[in-house]
Amino acid sequence: MSDRWYSEAVIYCLDIDTFADSDGDGVGDIQGLISRLDYLAGLGITCLWLQPIHPSPNRDDGYDATDFYNVDPRFGTLGDFAELLHQANNRGIRVIIDLVVNHTSDQHPWFQSARSSPDSPYRDWYVWSDQQPADRHQGMVFPGEQNETWTYDRTAKSWFYHRFYKFQPDLNFGNPAVRDEIKKIVSFWIQLGVSGFRIDAAPFIIEMTEPGNANSPKDFAFLTELRQHVQWRSGDAVLLAEANVEPDELQKYFGDSGGSANRLHMLFDFMLNGRLMLALARRDPEPVIEALRETPALPSGAQWATFLRNHDEIDLSRLTADQRQDVFREFGPDEDMQLYGRGIRRRLAPMLGNDRRRIELAYSLQFSLRGTPVLRYGEEIGMGEDLSLPGRESIRTPMQWSMKPNAGFSEADAGKLIRPVVEGGDFGYERVNVTLQRQDPGSLLSWFERMTRALREAPEIGSGTCTPIDQVLPPGVLAHRADGPTGTMVFLHNLSTKHATVDLGSLYEEADLPNDMLSDRPYNPVGKLDALELAGQGYRWIRLCRSYAGAGPAGRPV
Ligand code: GLC
Description:
Elements: E1 11-14, H1 30-35, H2 37-42, E2 47-50, H3 78-90, E3 94-99, H4 109-116, E4 128-129, E5 150-153, E6 158-161, H5 176-192, E7 196-199, H6 202-205, H7 221-233, E8 238-241, H8 247-254, E9 266-268, H9 270-282, H10 286-294, E10 303-306, E11 314-315, H11 321-331, E12 338-339, E13 343-344, H12 348-351, H13 356-368, E14 372-376, H14 434-438, H15 444-456, H16 460-463, E15 465-468, E16 477-484, E17 487-494, E18 500-502, E19 515-519, E20 532-534, E21 539-546
Parallel strand pairs: 1-2, 1-14, 2-3, 3-7, 7-8, 8-9, 9-10, 10-14
Antiparallel strand pairs: 4-6, 5-6, 11-13, 12-13, 15-16, 16-17, 17-21, 18-20, 19-21
Helix pairs in contact: 5-7, 9-10, 9-11, 13-15
C-alpha cells in the first residue's frame, strides 16, 4: 500500500449549508455534519472535502469570502470546527477545505480598505488599472451572468480585475504581501488539523494580470513555493487543485521541468470527466481509452482526482462541438438543462434516466479508473436536481435523509430553508432518501457501500498504473487493468446494452486463482478468463493476482 494516503482515499464533497441542520434555522451546520459522520464512515469515505466554510455574503455559494480565518457563523464556531476535525479523525476520516484565494468578496475588509484610497495598505493587494483595459470584455468564466472582467469602481476611481463575478475582485499575486498572507491562511488551517486544501481556480491564482493582455503570463513558481510551505507545516497535507486547462499545460501544475512532483499533489481530471460523459452518451468506450492514452505521464507522487459530478455544471468545453452536441442530446436536451453554452446543470441519476444499471456502470467505471475518486453528496442515493432554481443552484439542494418533512434535513419551516428540498416525482425525498435505502440491501446506497469496500480492497486502483487492455473486444466493451505493488486487477465494463462474451484467456497465465470482487450480478466463476460473460451495461471487477510482501521473483506468494 502507498505511503501517500491521498492515492487510496475515497473523497466525499459536501457543502455544510445543505447537508444537515442541527439547530433548526434552515441552514446546515457543523454539528449537523458531525452527527452524520458515522453515516459517511459506513459509506467507506476516508476524506471529506468541505466547500467554502468562511463568512461570506454568499453571492457565489461561499466562493466569495470576507474572512479567511473564521467559519461562517451560520455553520457554527471555530470550536465546532475543531470538534469536527476531532470526531472525523476518530473515524479515520480526514478533512480538506476549499481554499478560495484567487479573489475575495468585495465586502472583504481588505477590498473595502483598498478601494477607499490609493494610500491604503491594501491597495496593491488587488489588481487595478487607471485606464479602461482593452481586454475588459474577454476571459469571462460565467458568460451570460458576467459581462466583463474589469469593472470601474467609483470609490477607487479605478478599474479592478475580476476573473469571476464583479463582486469577486482578484487578489494580486504579484504582491509578495499577498503570497505571505495566503501562506499564513494555509498554516492556520493546517494548525487546526485539516489534511489539505482544494485549491479553487488554480490557473487564475498564478496569473500575473497585465491590463489589456487577455493572456497574461503565469508564475508557476508560486505553486512550488506554496507546496514547500505546506509540506514544512505538515508532511502529509495535500493540495488538490481545480485546473481545467489544455492537456499540454497540465504537467506544469504537478511539477517543474526537473521532473519531480514539487507543485500540486492532485488535479481534478476534467479531461477524463468530459470523455466519460461522451462515452456514456455514445455507449462507446473509445473516448475513455483515448483519454487514458492522451494523459500525460505524471511525476511520481502526482495523482488524478476523478469525478462524474461536482457542484458546478458539467463542463464539456474540451469536447468538440459534435461531441458536445451528442452529450447535450442524450443528457441535457432542454435549453434549461444547459449552462454557459458549455455545460449541464443536472445530477447524474436524472441524466442517466434513473436507469439503475447505467448509474452503477457509470460509477463503477469512475471508481475503477486511475486516480482518487471524488463523490458528491447525494449521488450515493441517486438524488435529482431542481431546474426551477437559478443556474448552478439546481444541483445544490439539501441532502435527502428521510421521509420526514424537509427530507429530514432541517426542522425549520420549509420557507426558511437555505434552498427547497426536491419533492415529489421520481427524485423527491419521499422516494429517494437515506433511511429507505439503508434498509434495502438492493438499494443504490447499499451498492455504493459494497463498491467502496471493493475499492479499498484494491489499492492498485489508486496507487498503481491503469492501462486499457489492447485486444479485440465485443463492441461497447472496455477492458482495463490496474497494476501495483499489491497485485493486479482487471475490469470489464459493457457500455452497450447487448450481452457480450469476453475472452481474456491470454491473461490467465498471470493469474493466481482469479475471482470476481464486484459485478453487476452474479456470474459463473471466472475460470480461465476465456469466456467471461458480461450483461448489457454490466461490469466485473476481477482480481487477477495479489502480491504479498516477501513475494518470490515471479511476484507469486512464497
Ligand atoms: C470555482 C468553483 C465555482 C466558483 C468559482 C469562483 O470554479 O468551482 O463554484 O463559482 O470557482 O470562485
